[in-house]
């Protein structure tokens, strides 16, 4: 009796696995996206909305980073590559690119840090290591700890281009590998300074104005706040009609509203 | 019956070798990806230069090698005395009921995911170290402390097993000769269980040098060569994991080259430890 039950359970288990595996294999063409981890959650959300409306559409969104998105779309592995950087590398110059959103980068410090405003020059001096003490920027003396992103990150690349220009990041910099961990590190260290995507800001850290301009989506949109980067969708060479339709959807009012509600800056 | 047994025997034989086979595949893959770059760029240039800046085509990993060595050493300094002492206490001194409570608790430590250790280190330990000792808190010291605790279960359970496996006559004989329990432990039991304890330490060392997630979160990942235990540093594993997601082209190959160096490094370290202790 017991063994019969066990056998029944085993068969049910195998059948359910079989069903689970075969479930996704619809005959429709799959639209594949990969790249920027900053835009990945938005792309997933929008893909869900799109798939709810179009029963036949299947959209597969993967992360991997901007560099991977560029490589994958260049080789035709994915239909749409996502990249968040100021300038796309030359290898994709022959492909069509669409900017589907913009993302501001905010400079953050600990909540108890009295600093309100910083000039772009001071910011550059801090991140290149010319300024190593908070006293130099008008705060009580304390060693300054710079936290940056790892080499290859789209946010890092944009920040380096806008703030550091051609200069090198200070050797004393510490590194974290995501917006979230930078926020945690700055939250727990009174002397730290870092930068994250505006969408990741919450009350646990304090944003610093740059040249008197507040880091808000509004100011990025009207062009006053310059620390921002576009999020590119790069289209595969012979892209299909289905994927084009999805891109049209991403640029539609509905999708752009979802983008802005969740913290990014719409392009329309 | 005979045929059945043959089949089972062959299956088990094959399974036993599959572990070696997988290790071989991993080795071949890493070396295939990493070795060409290692020689194109220059082995010495990679190992003995400390400027790592892939976007400027600079691939010196000296600072990360030093980081790995310091953090692993630190973890062992924390983990070995604690672990061995704990094993001795549990085997020779503890009441049976105490052992029944402590042993499963220690084994539970091994089941905690490393990201949880890392998070605790970042949120709890780093601020404490920052306010009492200075520095950023995300440092070699905090990483060593956390890793030292992470390798405890490995060291304790293997040391305990080898202490327990000793024949009862060793202890009885020593006590009968008039030695105290402490003298028995130090002079008779520890030397006899040495090889097992060292095996535990080697496994712990492997875990410490290979740990990635916790180290990324608490060591600060700075690329400067550390001069004090309060400095932040980056280990080789952290370096690979931080950038692999983004790396393409030379950068990716450089990370594989780093994996090759790490691989050789661990191999050397393991054989060194085994060699030193077998000689005595």
Automatic annotation (TrEMBL), chain A:
<dbReference type="InterPro" id="IPR024370">
    <property type="entry name" value="PBP_domain"/>
</dbReference>
<dbReference type="InterPro" id="IPR011862">
    <property type="entry name" value="Phos-bd"/>
</dbReference>
<comment type="similarity">
    <text>Belongs to the PstS family.</text>
</comment>
<dbReference type="Pfam" id="PF12849">
    <property type="entry name" value="PBP_like_2"/>
</dbReference>
<dbReference type="InterPro" id="IPR050811">
    <property type="entry name" value="Phosphate_ABC_transporter"/>
</dbReference>
<keyword id="KW-0813">Transport</keyword>
<keyword id="KW-0732">Signal</keyword>
<protein>
    <recommendedName>
        <fullName>Phosphate-binding protein</fullName>
    </recommendedName>
</protein>
<feature type="domain" description="PBP">
    <location>
        <begin position="26"/>
        <end position="254"/>
    </location>
</feature>
<dbReference type="GO" id="GO:0042301">
    <property type="term" value="F:phosphate ion binding"/>
</dbReference>
<keyword id="KW-0592">Phosphate transport</keyword>
<comment type="function">
    <text>Involved in the system for phosphate transport across the cytoplasmic membrane.</text>
</comment>
<dbReference type="GO" id="GO:0006817">
    <property type="term" value="P:phosphate ion transport"/>
</dbReference>
UniProtKB/TrEMBL annotation, chain B:
<dbReference type="InterPro" id="IPR035906">
    <property type="entry name" value="MetI-like_sf"/>
</dbReference>
<dbReference type="InterPro" id="IPR011864">
    <property type="entry name" value="Phosphate_PstC"/>
</dbReference>
<dbReference type="GO" id="GO:0006817">
    <property type="term" value="P:phosphate ion transport"/>
</dbReference>
<feature type="transmembrane region" description="Helical">
    <location>
        <begin position="141"/>
        <end position="163"/>
    </location>
</feature>
<feature type="transmembrane region" description="Helical">
    <location>
        <begin position="61"/>
        <end position="94"/>
    </location>
</feature>
<keyword id="KW-0472">Membrane</keyword>
<keyword id="KW-0813">Transport</keyword>
<keyword id="KW-0592">Phosphate transport</keyword>
<comment type="function">
    <text>Part of the binding-protein-dependent transport system for phosphate; probably responsible for the translocation of the substrate across the membrane.</text>
</comment>
<protein>
    <recommendedName>
        <fullName>Phosphate transport system permease protein</fullName>
    </recommendedName>
</protein>
<dbReference type="InterPro" id="IPR000515">
    <property type="entry name" value="MetI-like"/>
</dbReference>
<dbReference type="GO" id="GO:0005886">
    <property type="term" value="C:plasma membrane"/>
</dbReference>
<dbReference type="Pfam" id="PF00528">
    <property type="entry name" value="BPD_transp_1"/>
</dbReference>
<dbReference type="GO" id="GO:0005315">
    <property type="term" value="F:phosphate transmembrane transporter activity"/>
</dbReference>
<comment type="similarity">
    <text>Belongs to the binding-protein-dependent transport system permease family. CysTW subfamily.</text>
</comment>
<feature type="transmembrane region" description="Helical">
    <location>
        <begin position="175"/>
        <end position="192"/>
    </location>
</feature>
<feature type="transmembrane region" description="Helical">
    <location>
        <begin position="12"/>
        <end position="31"/>
    </location>
</feature>
<feature type="transmembrane region" description="Helical">
    <location>
        <begin position="106"/>
        <end position="129"/>
    </location>
</feature>
<keyword id="KW-1003">Cell membrane</keyword>
<keyword id="KW-0812">Transmembrane</keyword>
<feature type="transmembrane region" description="Helical">
    <location>
        <begin position="255"/>
        <end position="277"/>
    </location>
</feature>
<keyword id="KW-1133">Transmembrane helix</keyword>
């Amino acid at each position: 009796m017991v063994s019969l039950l066990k056998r029944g359970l085993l068969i049910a288990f195998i059948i359910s696995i079989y069903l689970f595996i075969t479930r996704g294999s619809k005959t429709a063409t799959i639209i594949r996206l990969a790249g920027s981890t900053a835009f990945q959650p938005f792309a997933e959300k929008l893909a869900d909305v799109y798939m709810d409306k179009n029963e036949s559409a299947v959209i597969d969104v993967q992360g991997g980073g901007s560099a991977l998105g560029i490589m994958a779309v260049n080789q035709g592995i994915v239909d749409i590559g996502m990249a968040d950087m100021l300038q796309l590398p030359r290898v994709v110059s022959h492909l069509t690119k669409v900017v589907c959103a913009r993302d501001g980068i905010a400079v953050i410090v600990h909540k108890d840090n009295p600093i309100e405003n910083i000039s772009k020059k001071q910011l550059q001096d801090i991140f290149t290591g010319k300024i190593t003490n908070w006293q130099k920027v008008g705060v009580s003396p304390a060693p300054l700890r710079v936290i940056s992103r790892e080499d290859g990150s789209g946010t890092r690349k944009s920040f380096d281009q806008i703030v550091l220009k051609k200069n090198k990041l200070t050797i004393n910099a510490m590194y974290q590998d995501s917006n979230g961990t930078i926020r945690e590190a700055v939250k727990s260290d009174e002397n730290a300074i870092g930068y994250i995507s505006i969408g990741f800001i919450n009350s646990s850290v304090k944003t610093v104005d740059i040249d008197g301009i507040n880091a808000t989506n509004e100011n990025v949109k009207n062009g006053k706040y310059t620390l921002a980067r576009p999020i590119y969708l790069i289209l595969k060479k012979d892209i299909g009609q289905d994927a084009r339709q999805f891109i049209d959807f991403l640029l539609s009012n509905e999708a752009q509203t979802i983008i802005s509600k969740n913290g990014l800056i719409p392009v329309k | 019956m005979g045929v059945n047994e043959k089949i089972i025997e062959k299956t088990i034989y094959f399974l036993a070798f599959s572990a070696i086979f997988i290790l071989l595949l991993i080795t071949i893959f890493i070396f295939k990806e990493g070795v060409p770059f290692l020689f194109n760029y220059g082995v010495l240039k990679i190992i003995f230069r400390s400027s790592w800046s892939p976007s400027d085509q600079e691939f010196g990993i000296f600072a990360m090698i030093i980081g790995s060595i310091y953090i692993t050493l630190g973890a062992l300094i924390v983990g070995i005395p604690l672990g061995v002492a704990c094993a001795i206490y549990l085997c020779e001194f503890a009441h049976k009921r105490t052992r029944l409570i402590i042993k499963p608790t220690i084994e539970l430590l091994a089941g905690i995911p490393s990201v949880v250790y890392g998070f605790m280190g970042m949120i709890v330990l780093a601020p404490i170290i920052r306010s009492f000792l200075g520095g950023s808190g995300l440092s070699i010291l905090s990483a060593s402390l956390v890793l030292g605790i992470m390798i405890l279960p490995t060291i304790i359970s293997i040391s305990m097993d080898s202490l327990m496996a000793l024949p009862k006559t060793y202890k009885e004989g020593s006590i009968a000769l008039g030695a105290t329990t402490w003298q028995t432990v130090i002079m008779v039991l520890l030397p006899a269980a040495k090889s097992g304890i060292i095996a535990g330490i080697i496994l712990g060392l492997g875990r410490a040098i290979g740990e990635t997630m916790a180290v990324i979160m608490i060591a600060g990942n700075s690329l400067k060569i550390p001069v004090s235990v309060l400095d932040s540093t980056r280990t080789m594993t952290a370096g690979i994991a931080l950038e692999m997601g983004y790396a393409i082209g030379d950068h990716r190959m450089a990370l594989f080259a780093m994996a090759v160096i790490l691989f050789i490094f661990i191999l050397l370290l393991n054989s060194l430890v085994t060699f030193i202790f077998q000689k005595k």
